């Protein structure tokens, strides 16, 4: 049988990587030292989940679970920045719940147009034009673009409806939806005709609400028997549950009271997602619908068990979807309970937003000593050190030096000293998956700094190029020094301090 409805998929998502910055020098006639003009790389595209009214199933993602956004374009010379990669927007049905690999809820997508960035694109690298400063006027390097995030998520579709029709297979749930609303589900006289939830919009007076025909449940549904878990998932969001009981069934061991007890037990054993704020299914408002009253024997049985069900505290309705009996009373009762449930939801006080600013002494990184198979090492963690390492071109010595300067200014070297690191110790920056390992060499202060800061060019300093008069004076000084030297040599020769060899006559 072809699959045409999917309500749970595993997606492998990859955001786009940022484009690399470029190191370039402006070259123009009569301007041999035009300065850096390398552009920045574009940002990578993000993966965005968006609620789309046209999306009704997750089937497309079941067939193509791997999705990747476009990368950002690299920069170019003449201060040309690379283009940003477009975001990859994935349409999902309303009511989709996003979970991570550990089962934690990441987002609950409710409301048309709701968006959630599930994988963020990498930042583009800076070109040497953006890295230039008063102290670094001629950077010979650029930063690399960051890789995009890669995540594996689970999408679960949970039907958004006010009323759920539940019961055994072939109890007449689809028939009720077809007569209460304009929905036209598939109806047949064999079990499990309904394999997907069917939604219908019902109007009762001034109230409009949605009714979901949930596929049939059987004993053991809470354990997954008969696709029970997939069916019960679509009941979680419904505020009113209507038990549709078949009073005309000929199966042995089946009667309205037994059917109700079996389904109630399955509802009590099913555990909904607590993070969604849903109450246990056994605590929802429940109605009893004794169906197929157009059959004389079924109607007699319904009238017989109705007092017993009312003694249990249920509101009971005897209906017939085929003969359209008792539907008006049932519809208005559903509307009344839906209106009450909506008022309770609107009365809930919205959760207070708590802002937790970063502490003033928070350095933004941490250094810890760990033990590995090759001995102890020091791990540096934090957003900024990890990002800086990803942006560094380790084939460029100047870029590596720039990274060392940034880490030193951040205070990483001071923290390494505090935790006991010495020269030659192994230092790891980043998490376990993409860490960078190197032997630590502390920054030394020596006379090399007198030659100028890293990334500077003395030819570009203001006042470094002499004027014409200064060049003439310098040339006169050189000529005078040469003449003085020549005169000194002649004096020494005449005084006899120089002696010629015999072969130099």
Automatic annotation (TrEMBL):
Q: Which UniProt keywords apply?
A: Cytoplasm, GTP-binding, Hydrolase, Magnesium, Metal-binding, Nucleotide-binding
Note whether Hydrolase occurs among the keywords.
yes
Q: Which InterPro entries match?
A: G_OBG, GTP-bd, GTP-bd_Obg/CgtA, GTP-bd_prot_GTP1/OBG_C_sf, GTP1-OBG_CS, GTP1_OBG_dom, GTP1_OBG_dom_sf, OBG_GTPase
> Which annotated residues bind GTP?
167-174, 192-196, 213-216, 291-294, 320-322
List localization entries: Cytoplasm
Domain OBG-type G, by residue range, is: 161-339
Q: Which cofactor does it need?
A: Mg(2+)
The OCT domain sits at 357-442
Q: Where is this region: Disordered?
A: 59-94, 462-505
| Superkingdom of this protein's organism | Bacteria
Q: Which stretches does UniProt call biased (Basic and acidic residues)?
A: 68-82, 462-480, 491-505
Q: What is its main location?
A: cytoplasm
Entry-linked SUPFAM superfamilies: Obg GTP-binding protein C-terminal domain, Obg GTP-binding protein N-terminal domain, P-loop containing nucleoside triphosphate hydrolases
Q: Residues that bind Mg(2+), according to the entry?
A: 174, 194
The record's CDD domains line, in alphabetical order, gives: Obg
Note whether Hydrolase occurs among the keywords: yes
Role description: An essential GTPase which binds GTP, GDP and possibly (p)ppGpp with moderate affinity, with high nucleotide exchange rates and a fairly low GTP hydrolysis rate. Plays a role in control of the cell cycle, stress response, ribosome biogenesis and in those bacteria that undergo differentiation, in morphogenesis control.
| PANTHER family the record matches | DEVELOPMENTALLY REGULATED GTP-BINDING PROTEIN-RELATED (PTHR11702), MITOCHONDRIAL RIBOSOME-ASSOCIATED GTPASE 2 (PTHR11702:SF31)
Q: How does it assemble?
A: Monomer.
Q: Which family does it belong to?
A: Belongs to the TRAFAC class OBG-HflX-like GTPase superfamily. OBG GTPase family.
What this protein is called in its record is GTPase Obg
Write down the species: Intrasporangium calvum
């Amino acid at each position: 049988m072809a699959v045409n409805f999917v309500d749970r998929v595993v997606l492998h998502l990859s955001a786009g990587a940022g484009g690399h910055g470029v190191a370039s020098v402006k070259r123009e006639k009569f301007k041999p030292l035009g300065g850096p003009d390398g552009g920045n790389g574009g940002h990578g595209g993000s993966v965005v989940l968006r609620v789309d009214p046209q999306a009704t199933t997750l089937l497309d993602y079941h067939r193509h679970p791997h999705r990747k956004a476009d990368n950002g374009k690299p920069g170019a010379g003449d201060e040309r920045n690379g283009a940003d990669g477009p975001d990859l927007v994935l349409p999902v049905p309303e009511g989709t719940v996003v979970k991570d690999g550990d089962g934690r809820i990441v987002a609950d997508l409710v409301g048309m147009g709701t968006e959630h960035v599930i994988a963020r694109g990498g930042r583009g690298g800076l070109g040497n034009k953006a890295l230039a400063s008063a102290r670094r006027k001629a950077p010979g390097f650029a930063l690399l673009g960051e890789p995009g995030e890669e995540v594996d998520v689970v999408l679960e579709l949970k039907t958004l409806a006010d009323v759920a029709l539940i019961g055994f297979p072939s109890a007449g749930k689809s028939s009720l939806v077809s007569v209460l609303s304009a929905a036209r589900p598939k109806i047949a006289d064999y079990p499990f005709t309904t394999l997907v939830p069917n939604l219908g919009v019902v109007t009762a007076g001034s109230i409009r609400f949605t009714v979901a025909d949930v596929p049939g449940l059987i004993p053991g549904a809470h354990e997954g028997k008969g696709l029970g878990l997939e069916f019960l998932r679509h009941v979680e969001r419904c505020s009113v549950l209507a038990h549709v009981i078949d009073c005309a069934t000929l199966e042995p061991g089946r009667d309205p009271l037994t059917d109700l007890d079996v389904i109630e037990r399955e509802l009590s054993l099913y555990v909904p997602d607590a993070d969604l704020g849903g109450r246990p299914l056994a605590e929802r408002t429940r109605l009893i619908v004794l169906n197929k009253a157009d059959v004389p024997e079924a109607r007699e049985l319904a009238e017989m068990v109705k007092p017993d069900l009312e003694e249990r505290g249920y509101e009971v309705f005897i209906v017939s979807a085929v003969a359209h009996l008792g539907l008006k009373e049932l519809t208005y009762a559903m509307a009344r309970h839906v209106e009450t449930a909506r008022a309770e939801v609107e009365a809930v006080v919205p959760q207070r937003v708590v802002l937790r600013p970063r502490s003033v002494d928070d350095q933004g990184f941490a250094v810890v000593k760990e033990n590995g198979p090759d001995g102890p090492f020091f791990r540096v963690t934090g957003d900024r050190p990890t990002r800086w390492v990803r942006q560094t071109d380790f084939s460029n010595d100047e870029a590596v030096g720039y990274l060392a300067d940034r880490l030193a200014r951040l205070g990483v070297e001071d923290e390494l000293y505090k935790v006991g690191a010495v020269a030659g110790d192994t230092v790891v920056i980043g998490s376990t998956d993409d860490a960078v390992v190197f032997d630590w060499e502390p920054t030394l202060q020596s006379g090399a700094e007198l030659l100028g800061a890293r990334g500077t060019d003395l030819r570009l300093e203001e006042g470094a190029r002499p004027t014409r008069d200064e060049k003439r004076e310098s040339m006169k000084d050189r000529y005078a020094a040469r003449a003085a030297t020549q005169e000194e040599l002649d004096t020494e020769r005449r005084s006899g301090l120089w002696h010629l060899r015999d072969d130099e006559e």
